[in-house]
Amino acid sequence: MPAVTVDDILVLPRVSEPDPATTADRPVLSVTTAPAGLEGEGFPVRRAFAGVDLSQLDPFIHMDQMGEVDYAPGEPKGTPWHPHRGFETVTYMIDGVFRHQDSNGGGGLITDGDTQWMTAGGGILHIEAPPEEVVVRGGLFHGFQLWVNLPARLKMTSPRYQDIRAGQVKLLSSADGGALLRLIAGDVAGQQGPGVTHTPITLLHATLSPGARLRLPWRQDFNALAYVLAGSGSVGAEQRPVQMGQLAVFGPGDVINVAASQRQDGGTDTLEILLLGGQPIKEPVAAYGPFVMNTKAELVQAFDDYQAGKLGSIPAEPSHVTDEPHPGHDVL
Ligand code: MN
């Protein structure tokens, strides 16, 4: 699993262990298993949030784990051009290459630990697909896409695109050096990740060595979720077992507990887990297909506006999107 990693985790800034005397561990409210599905032109996904009430996910709406899949030559797939309105998409690639292009001029390649952050706001069209070379060659494809809601006052904000290179991700070590933390957005333990969000969130990808434990301070005013990308372990002080494809929802408190099983199997020797939370927006959600609004009338308006071409137009070829590999990447 490439993502971004380091040779010596001990040189990284360490997150100090929260004092058990003055902090409260967040209890685990539920553990759910993501059902498998197909997205876009038919790439395999796990619907991470299926079966969980939106009020517990708030400010998040939806998350797909993409893959992990090892494609044969000719198999890699993406999405056709499609619209969005009313939220932000965060796409993180662990393995493989995805190309993004949108009607607002945003776009680029992401691979091996890169993140792309797209604010759809009032409206955008975009396409996400593996580049032609990757389609021909096949290979590993693994990542996730998260939908972050926008409050009513920002639903119609201007579209925005952020490229977060793997090298910009803030790397941290757990107190005992057993876990590598990749802080993609927001802050944790006084450290700041590179992603800029309209809605305050914290998003990190942690890799835990077998048997490692992580007690991580977590803002009280944020919700807290953990999703297992690979491997097995436990969540909460109560050590509730979790494995690949499972989501844990935590209750109130100010510390998240995660631990990796001593024995890992299923092709990984580490626990790969996403930890995420944000400030709940606490507004009504009307979501349908590619639109996330507050009311049904706004959804109807979004469809009308899309059909009238008001959400943007597909850029003419050749696009200005660069197909150049980024420094430090030798994928293409
Ligand atoms: Mn999309």
Notes on the structure:
With 332 residues, the chain is mainly beta. The chain has one domain (12-307): Jelly Rolls. Helices cover 7% and strands 44% of the residues. The two termini are 18 Å apart. Residues 320-332 have low confidence and may be disordered. The structure holds manganese (II) ion (MN).
Helix coverage percent: under 10%
> What is the number of domains?
1
Distinct ligands: manganese (II) ion
Per CATH, the superfamily is Jelly Rolls
Please give the number of β-strands: 26
Topology:
Elements lengths: L27 E6 L2 E4 L3 E5 L6 H4 L2 E12 L10 E3 L2 E9 L1 E6 L4 E5 L3 E5 L4 E6 L2 H6 L1 E11 L10 E5 L5 E4 L5 E7 L1 E2 L2 E2 L8 E8 L4 E5 L6 E7 L1 E4 L4 E4 L2 E5 L4 E6 L10 E8 L7 E3 L2 E3 L2 H12 L25
Antiparallel strand pairs: 1-22, 2-3, 3-4, 4-11, 5-10, 6-9, 6-11, 7-8, 7-10, 9-12, 13-14, 14-17, 15-16, 17-24, 18-23, 19-22, 19-24, 20-21, 20-23, 25-26
The structure holds manganese (II) ion.
Provide a brief overview of the structure:
The chain is mainly β.
Task: Summarize this structure as a short list of keywords or feature phrases.
332 residues; mainly beta; Jelly Rolls; binds manganese (II) ion
